[in-house]
Structures are given as C-alpha cells and as structure tokens.
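Slide 14.
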Amino acid sequence: MMKKIRLSFTLFLFILGISYAQTYQPYTIGAETDESISELSAKVKTKLQENGFEILGEYKPANDPNRLLIAISSSQLKHAIGQVGGLTGFAAALRVGITREGGKTIISYTTPEYWGSAYFQKSYIKVQSNYRGISSKLSAALASFGTTEQKGFGSKKGMSISKLQSFHYMIGMPYFTDNIELGEFTSYQQAVSTIDANLSKGIKNLKKVYAVSLAEHKIKLYGIGLSGEKGESSFLPTIDISSPKHTAFLPYEMLVLDKKVFMLHGRFRIALSFPDLSMGTFMKIVSTPGDIKDLLKTALEQ
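Slide 15: predicted structure.
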C-alpha cells in the first residue's frame, strides 16, 4: 500500500514538473476568419456564453474600428479567486480580442495559464485545475470560427509558470506585489459606491468597460477604457507594433480590495503584456504609468 502511495506521489511530482516547465505566451489565437468584426461580435459572445462564460462588457480599444475587446469571467475563475483572495482579484476577468488586420479577422484571448501564474504566484498550484478547465472551455468556444489556430503569441520564447510567478521586466522594475494604491475609504461599501456613482455619472476620459464583484471577499475589479491625449490612443500605437495585434491587452484595471483601491504598476502590467519589447520602446512611453495612475484616480474623487 505504501509503495503504491509513493509511486502515485512520484507520478504527481513528475506531471507537475512537466507542467511547470512548459512555456506560455500572453495571448492565444483562437481562430482566423474572413468575417468582419460586426458579423463576429454577437456570434463570439453567444459561443462564449454557451461554454460557461459571463460577458462583462465590450469596447473598442483606443477607439480603433479594427479592434473589439470582450471582457469575460466565469464561475471557475471566481471560485479560484475566492480560494486565495487578496490581489488575485486582478485575475477576475479574461479578455477576448477581435482584430481586423492583414485582410483577415483574428480572434485572440489572454492565455489563462500565463495570466493566472503571474497573478496567483506561488498559490497557482491551488487553482491550476481551474485554469486548465477555463483554457479548455475558451478553446472550445472559439473552435467553430474559421481556421482554428490555438497558437500562442506575444513572446517569442514564452515563459514557464515559475518564471511568471516572479515576473519583472528587469532589475529594478516592479513585481506583481509592487502595486500602486490609488486611494483608501472607510469601508469596502463606501469604496465601491463612490466609484460606481462617479462612473455612472460620467468622468472625463474614463469609460467603464466592466465590473466584476466578489462581494463576500470584498473584491471588485473594474476595467476602464482610457481616452484623451494621455489615454490609449497615445501609447497603444507605440507599443503594439508587432503582428498579431495585442488587442486583448486592454482595458486597464483597478481593484477594490476591502477599503483600499489598487492598480498594477504600469511598468509591471505593460511589461507582462509586452515582454519582448525593447527598453528603447518602453522609454518612449516612460510617462504612461503615471498618466494611467492620474486618470484612474479621478474615479475615486468624493
């Protein structure tokens, strides 16, 4: 009996080792098709819903007519966050991009394992099975559209789970936990009520794309479209220079966690989304992390 247990445990470690050695890229091509974005939009949302995903919202990043972003969540994703809590709330939404480029339309999405590893860090092992299920369902949801690719992109070499769990662009650059506190309220309820009221009445250069709440854990994640001269149209063309386009990079998020509101540091969040960009390219948007912070803080004004 003990021998069987030891063999089972050894097999488990072997499989785990293979999983942790595998590399992942930020985005995955789900399918390519000749259909237009307008023709695909409703069909893609229907297929996502049929495969257990909740549609949170949609918008055109940088107001680009050749891009559409659909934000999604699922019970599996929320359950994973509920198991660990805290800053894993940043993982409450995944993103599906529909992009018209090169005479075709590409449906892509944020690779679940990539972002899950980066946001759950050492706790990823607790929710890895959730992410396998999410990845399988996303793949199935998009399999019926045109040519099915299921091909990663956004990083030539990709990164292993262990690398993603401690990701930072280079020495001196922020880690996942080096986030920025945008503000603090007297309670979770006051925080979400203030932000909801502000976004509802409208804030210059901000657009609420989605909100997903795990109220029992005092977690609420907002996806915010950024416009104006310091918004998405000012920095996206500078960094999204390869093909396929990284449409699923946006929108930017802010997280209510108990009575505090956080954003991921721009030099972490942007680098995680574009890990192969040169330092020279990043220097062209050196003011962007601060600009994003200033824009998001306007949603907290009382």
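Speaker note: The first helix runs from residue 2 to 21.
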